[in-house]
Design brief:
By secondary structure, the chain is an alpha/beta fold. It has ten helices and eight strands. The protein binds uridine-5'-diphosphate and magnesium ion.
Length: 330
């Protein structure tokens, strides 16, 4: 693709315009902070663009905040948004995007699973004129087989049910042009499935491959159960199909039972009353009972989501910030 060259991208830091914002959600990452900043800052310094690092402390309790303040004392380009409690990664990222002021914004994990050394490659593509440059995992060797399989299934189902097409194996590690960030910042929904939101926004998108590393220190904060919940949440946020599928299934069953009813009436007229039939009766009762509960559960899931949205609570609460001149966004 021959892109129009982006003219508003500053070539050097000397222009004064803030070129790049790195957004880092952090929850209990004390053990990773030093090596993360080491690799990130040396990469950014070599890039020769003006930058800021917006660290969102998502209610850490392990001294991450103190380490961030110490890092900021060394390098004032590090800015801190301290949330009032743990709100979860997606919400922390949302907060970071709202505080980021750069012409491009790069969300990245603090656990070094996203190599900061890839950022120059993302910036190159941005200069070529792409609005979203996502990093694609070349392999998922760092994941357990169960997690790999469930990820594959998730993408397959998501593609089938939703009209937003999501690039495979692309995470939150990506570069977003300012105009993309501005759109995301206007999206008010509470369920922040960021991968879906990034895809929904559209614009010119391109992938850059990388090999993910093992988590540097500590373990992933995702349990399998939480991941399952996350997937269900993502699907219901981007598809109404689970809600309407039951209409189709109900229609098929209704027609089938009409046919069965006709068959039984005719058979009874010809052969007389036939008492046995307990087995088929109980099977039908249990089956439809189960179907109804399942359907109710799905409707309840969507209703719960509507309830969450109509409460109109803020997505997150900011306790303190360091490094932002004006009062940040709401
Ligand atoms: N994170 C966060 N809030 C949370 C959980 C995680 O801000 O409630 C951050 C975490 O510090 C890291 C990133 O989100 O920088 C990714 O987290 P993790 O490595 O646990 O997730 P995974 O890599 O397994 O997707
Ligand atoms: Mg990780």
């Amino acid at each position: 693709m021959g892109g129009t060259k982006r003219l508003n991208v500053p070539e050097t830091a000397a222009t004064g315009a803030l070129a790049i914002s790195i957004v880092v959600p952090m929850f209990n990452e004390a053990a990773n902070v030093a090596s993360f900043f080491g690799r990130l800052l040396s990469t950014l310094d070599q890039l020769g663009l003006d930058y800021e690092v917006v660290c969102v402390d998502d209610g850490s309790t392990d001294g991450t905040r103190e380490l961030l303040l110490a890092a900021r004392a060394e390098s004032p380009r590090i800015k801190i948004v301290g949330l009032s409690r743990n709100f979860g990664k997606e919400v922390a990222l949302t907060a970071g995007l709202r505080y980021a002021g750069g012409a491009a914004v790069v969300p990245i994990d603090a656990d070094l699973q996203h190599p900061p050394e890839l950022i120059p490659a993302l910036v190159d593509k941005w200069r070529e004129g792409f609005d979203v440059v996502y990093a694609v995992r070349r392999n998922r060797a760092a994941d357990t087989p169960l997690r790999r399989l469930s990820a594959r299934m998730f993408y397959r189902i998501f593609d089938l049910l939703s009209d937003v097409s999501m690039p495979r194996d692309a995470g939150d590690f990506r570069l977003l042009d300012r105009r993309v960030v501005d759109v995301i910042n206007t999206m008010p929904e509470r369920s922040r499935f960021m991968k879906g939101i990034f895809a929904w926004v559209g614009f010119r998108q391109v992938g850059v491959q990388f090999d993910p590393d093992e988590r540097f220190v500590g373990k992933s904060k995702w349990r399998f159960g939480r991941l399952f919940h996350y997937a269900a949440d993502a699907l219901t946020a981007f598809s109404n199909f689970p809600l309407i599928a039951w209409g189709y299934i109900g229609a098929v069953i209704a027609f089938a039972s009409l046919a069965a009813g006709a068959f039984f009436i005719v058979r009874t007229l010809i052969l007389g009353v036939d008492v046995p039939g307990y087995a088929s009766l109980i099977v039908a009762v249990l089956f439809f009972g189960g179907m109804q509960l399942l359907t109710l559960g799905i409707i309840g899931g969507y209703l719960g989501r509507v309830f969450e949205e109509v409460k109109r609570r803020p997505l997150y609460v900011v306790a303190e910030t360091w490094g932002f001149e004006e009062a940040g966004p709401g």
